[in-house]
Amino acid sequence: MPVVKLYFDRLTRLVGADRKRVLARLPYIGLDIESRESDSVRVEYSPNRPDLATDYGIAKALRGILGIQLGLPRYSTSSSGVQVRVDRKLARVRPYVACAVARGLKMDKEDVRQLISMQEDLHNGLGRKRRKVAIGLHNLDVIRPPISYESAAPTLKLTPLGGSQKIELAQILAESQTGRTYGHILAGASGYPILKDSKGLIFSFPPIINGNETKVSVTTRNLFIDVTSTDEEAGEDTLAIVCTTLADMGARIGFVLVKYGDRRRVTPDLRPRKFSLDRDLVRKVTGLAINSSEIDVCLRRSRIEPLGRVSVLAPRYRIDLLHPVDLAEEVALGYGIDRIEPAYPPSPTPGSFNSVSQLIEKFVELMTSSGLTESMGYELLDELTLYQHFGRPSNGKIEVENPRSIEHAVLRDSVLPSLMGVLSRNVKEEYPQRVFEVGRVYNREEEYVRESWHLGVLIAHAQAGYSEAKSYLDAFFRTLYGKELRTHGSSRWGFLEGRCASIEFSGGTLGHVGEITPGSIAAFGVNLPVVGFELDLTSLLERETRAEEGTTK
Amino acid sequence: MTGTPLHPIEVKILYSLKDEEWKDFDSVVRATKLNPDQIRRALEWLASKSYVQVRQDVVTEVQSRGRMPPELLLVSKLREKGGKALLDEIRKEFGSSDEFSAALGRAKNSSWVRTSNDLSGPLLVLVEGEGPQKFEDLISMLEAPLRQDSLSQDVVHLVEEMVKRGIVSRREQKVTKVRATESGLRALSSLSGAEYDERLTSEMLSTGSWRGKQFRPINVEATAPRLYPGRRHPVREFIGEVREAYISMGFTEVLGSNIQSAFWNFDALFTPQDHPGRDLQDTFYLKGLSDRSLKRTGLVANVASVHEDGWKTGSKGWRYNWDIQEARRLVLRTHNTSLTIQALSNSGKQETRVFAVGRVYRNENLDYKHLAEFHQMDGIMIGENLNVRNLMGFLNEFYKKLGMSSVKLWPSYFPYTEPSLQVMGYSNLAKDWIELGGSGVFRPEVTWPLGVRKPVLAWGLGIERLILLRLGLDDLRTLYESDLGWLRRRPEFASSETLLR
Questions:
Q1: What global pTM score does this model have?
Q2: Cross-chain Cβ contact B243/A344 below 8 Å
Q3: Does A390 map to a domain?
Q4: A348, B236: Cβ pair inside 8 Å?
Q5: Residues B111 and B44 in one domain
Q6: Whether complex ipTM tops 0.90
């Protein structure tokens, strides 16, 4: 979630309320306080509300919720006289550009910092890391319109922001930090998008970097804003959010004529948008018994203007409103979430446990009452733990894509590796050690993955031997089913040849019991004999849940 | 008898020391047939009672490195061949000619062998004598470590030479020596003659011979071997409480696969396909696997349309081309709402309450506040008249059962709920409000495609943070490190004061 730092002196001035009132209300417009200092506070805001990226936007919302200024904030635009011509060749690369002019700015350092931070947040959120939308802010006074948004050869040169000499576009992609981070967006493009003025100044290379000549600083009075995109609506939404913020900073917004051959767009359009209002839906969702005029007040506190009975006008920057239900939340916020009375509805039906999880509880109970300690391990492990330490091939492994840590990269197909991991992390702990885990394991079957519940038990101490493992196994079956299991000499990875048996119960093989191979024990750094078993619980779970279904019918 | 009674192990040890001389630790082991750990422990007790003195000596030990000197090898080869053999023949049996020359040189110098000539070439002949035999005896004696000062004068120089040749190793060894003190011997003698029995036997009971018998008093203050009862994992314990709380409020428990299609994890929850939360950086996708059975028909088609243009719901939708391939990808579920949403889709026209508690996965680097695998307790409530007030009422009631004094809700954002509310709970431990999870009312874009028009309240709540608070811990990783010391010795009640109440 994006974060914005708010200085109390600025915010209280913009809101027109004292620090205490402001701080108390921040969470109730959806801002999560992350940390606080003596002069400032850092808050997290939802990416669907990019208008809250600066203190100007936050002040606007707070003024509404505090009742200082209600209803729609108004924005106007006038012609800037600037035109932008779009090159058709960009249709396959980055087809859209929406532009605006902001004049008469008087920004201080903090204004500039917040503007840049808002731009970054928009890039990452709405802009999907610049893939969908990228914003360029330029010093208008350096640019000589009309402007051309065109496709350029990779050999074309530009002085990148912060640079001192002209560099080829291809070189910027290959060598600069932003080029390497965002260059993939332009992969495969025959020409690269650039913005050029009538004097031939190349001042932007979207979505990678701006030119150095049009760099913005505290002394910049007039801005030219370009928003390039692969989605025209998202681009224009983004431009509107930037422009309303600039207008809040005191700028006069000028619109720009963008020409796509015969098609023309005038950007930005800052007029409020009309949405339909369903007052019954609002009451139904919120549970508030409020009349129409109360609903109107609540909406106006959320800076939304009721327009008759069944519609509202919302400011252009509210790009998050999709459905009439969204106005229910606006009413709830305007009302004050903290003023809503909780009401617990008694249940119409009795509750019921899931029969599989009840059985698993039963299995766990039996193992703990047998004196074993329950462990809970991760299901994502590394190849070493799962395969190499048992000297078995890893060709059936189920991997996740792009794991952040190689220690959590492969789904386990058995609980024994997890349990060996437990023993290996506890070599300094008292012996005997007797541990078990009931957990999920994953096996590849052709095109899909079978998930099953397994029970694994490992026992480690100087005298640990096959028969001890089998005793616990016997106890399991005798206690639960009153029947003896059978063990047949068998072999399985991880178990010592000649000291391993398959577990036969009720006509099926449910797992293996035996002594762990010295190779595996040593690989896990354990210095004592280890014995145990692993049981696939699938058939036992099915058997009981089937029986239960039979009785309830 | 005064003082603490002697344990039978102590008696055995004192008995082995009764001639008042300093004894090697090893000789005590041999004499008592006890295991060294038992003796070490008992010596500590005895020393603390001043019944024995213990000192550490350093002694020099010599031991054969297990390699036979080449001159002996030569002799034994000659013996096998009846006392003589061709020089060339013997030479061939040695691995290296250097070794053979050395062997021959030494054997000749010691007059163990001599050379003579035969028709077929030079001949090597064994000389009768005790020399080789004595040497062999010495070597075999040195197979076990031997104290250098115990060697007899006539072999000292021989051993010295073998040390230089690398046939015998020499090292300093620490030796524990013990001696019984006078009071120790007194304690021992005060015992002798006393008739006592070690333990009650079944025979004594059946014959009645226990009558009039004395049983040796034992050290009832000594530590007993440790026993660890089997225990459930603290996370399972807490989940048990959670399940009870849900059931008591009329919820039905559902269980489901940890692997889900992106469709059920994201698309059905109106999360656009390019939403940052769906990135590889945040979600575990299974490499090369997908749910090919998913087709754009029925409810899948409804979901697709709701993404594209809002379908019949009156929503604008997300306005992009929905891609079935993206929905088919398999993920490790990022929340259990992927299960409750399926229960919702199967609920028909019923007004019901459903919960799922289980493991969820996020592609995170592990640190004190992040795990890649953790648990959530997610639920939904379906009912014609349900609203935000009921959601708040439920959450208050639910957390009261889990020991939280106070719950409040803050506005938040999730793509699938409207309103969206963050759940905060007051922790007396942290002395602050902590985030417990998210909640809200499912959007029509979520419920309508599944054929549900009734309001549905939904929430996704964390578990691990609550467990940490209860146990007084501050690092999430502690829960899954499987530290047996913690799992076995963690006191059940020690943390009762730190409960959230």
A1: 0.80
A2: no
A3: yes
A4: no
A5: no
A6: yes
